[in-house]
Design brief:
The protein has 423 residues and is mostly helical. It has helices spanning 3-22, 24-52, 61-82, 97-110, 116-143, 155-178, 193-215, 221-240, 244-249, 277-281, 284-309, 315-331, 341-349, 355-371, 381-401, 409-421; strands spanning 90-91, 338-339. Helix 3 (61-82) crosses helix 12.
Length: 423
């Protein structure tokens, strides 16, 4: 692109931004879209942070949530600013959460006996190093104009991999809902009344959200069900005379101290010496998986965005854009993130297609970060777990059930085999 065309493009974007501010109808549509997507992606960040920072890392869950909220804000601004579509919604991806969760669990297992703070710092360092490497990989693939290579990956492999992620997300949702009451490796630990009482609301929330989404496509669906679920939970607490402290002790809400918990500092230079870099280096195979997975997910989502906005985008430019954002993100404590087709489609349906929406969206996420974790800590574990179950079931239905008619029986068997190999 010549300097003249670049200058013209910048002027056009600036003119569009000013027009959006001065035109009430455009501004209102984009504000509404920004608010809905902010609620959705705050919930996603809470779910991802809670899933990864579980077990021995549970006391650091507020920092885990903060980590992914920062990514939601940083990538949410940088990626659309440099993308070919200025209304692109970018955020951490739920599909990557199980891989990061496995990484965190592996690190915790290999560092048994060491202080939990050292384990948490090492996990955060591993996530950020992974983000940097994936960012460099994405940027290089885009720079070499190799974005179309994903089309040569066998479809059963792709379907099996995403189905495996769906399984891990569903399992993660069950783990979050059950909390310390059950051990996911021991099925007998789930055969108690107390665990069943914790799991049923989460499963019910996830299934209801999934069924309602398939029946209705209104943009208010998710916020309404989320608000109704949280409202019903606190109505039951009030009706039964149960205090929040008691609910916390019984595992119904997050157990971190609301008076002292903070999203900051997630990671500081002073904590670098505490990182066990040898353990971080041992995660190399997981990093390779995330490099390939992220490129596949990004290119699939870009195709989805093109359908939603009825416009062609340059996949290689979008790879470079996401790569650059994640390279920057690794140095500002912002984990792996890139464009989300489903979110962008929702925003587009609401009339959110201008960069002013992105600015408002980022401001709302930054406001949540500034307020701190106290309000977020009141979200019931059943809602967080149910949200993960809903996403997991979505993956399984999309990549196994809906694709069954498009795959020969032998390919379907191979897909199932690939799914088991991702676990």
């Amino acid at each position: 692109m010549s300097s003249t065309s670049k200058s013209s493009s910048v002027k056009n974007h600036w003119k569009s931004f000013v027009t959006s501010l001065l035109t009430p109808s455009i501004l209102f549509r984009n504000m509404s879209a920004a608010a809905v997507l902010a609620v959705l992606n705050v919930a996603t960040a809470v779910s991802i942070g809670t899933l990864i920072f579980s077990g021995p890392l549970k006391s650091f869950v507020s920092l885990g949530i903060g980590l992914f909220l920062i990514a939601t804000a940083v990538a949410g601004l940088i990626i659309p600013a440099t993308s070919g579509y200025k209304g692109l919604i970018a955020a951490p991806r739920s599909g990557q959460a199980p891989v990061f969760a496995v990484m965190a669990a592996t690190i915790a297992l290999s560092m048994q006996g060491q202080p939990n703070e050292t384990i948490a710092v090492t996990v955060i360092a591993a996530i950020l190093v992974t983000t940097l490497i994936v960012g460099i990989f994405m940027f290089t693939i885009g720079l070499a104009k190799m974005g179309t290579l994903v089309r040569y990956i066998p479809y059963p492999v792709v379907a099996g991999f995403f189905a495996g992620l769906g399984y891990l997300l569903t399992k993660g949702g069950i783990t979050v809902a059950a909390g310390p009451l059950a051990d996911i490796t021991s099925l007998t630990s789930f055969l108690t009344a107390e665990v069943t009482i914790h799991l049923l609301p989460a499963v019910l929330f996830g299934v209801v959200l999934l069924l309602m989404e398939q029946r209705f496509s209104h943009w208010l669906l998710f916020p309404t069900i989320l608000a109704a679920g949280i409202g019903l939970f606190y109505f039951i607490l009030f009706a039964t005379g149960t205090s929040i402290e008691t609910a916390t002790q019984n595992g119904w809400v997050s157990a971190f101290d609301r008076s002292t918990a903070s999203f900051f500092p997630v990671f500081s230079l002073g904590q670098v010496p505490a990182v066990d870099w040898s353990v971080v280096a041992q995660q190399f195979s997981t990093v390779i998986v995330l490099c390939i997975l992220s490129v596949i997910m990004l290119l699939l989502d870009i195709s989805g965005v093109e359908i939603a906005i009825n416009r062609d985008l340059d996949p290689n430019r979008e790879l470079r854009t996401a790569g650059l954002s994640n390279i920057i993100g690794a140095f500002v404590v912002s984990p792996l993130s890139f464009g989300v087709a489903a979110d962008t489609a929702v925003a587009h349906k609401l009339g959110g297609d201008r960069f002013i929406m992105i600015v408002i969206y980022t401001a709302l996420i930054l406001t949540v970060i500034a307020v701190g974790p106290a309000p977020i800590s009141l979200i019931p574990s059943a809602i967080v777990g149910g949200f993960l179950i809903y996403i997991g079931l979505n993956f399984l239905i999309e990549w196994i059930w809906k694709k069954r008619s498009k795959l020969p029986f032998t390919d379907l068997l191979y897909t199932s085999y690939c799914k088991t190999r991702t676990l």
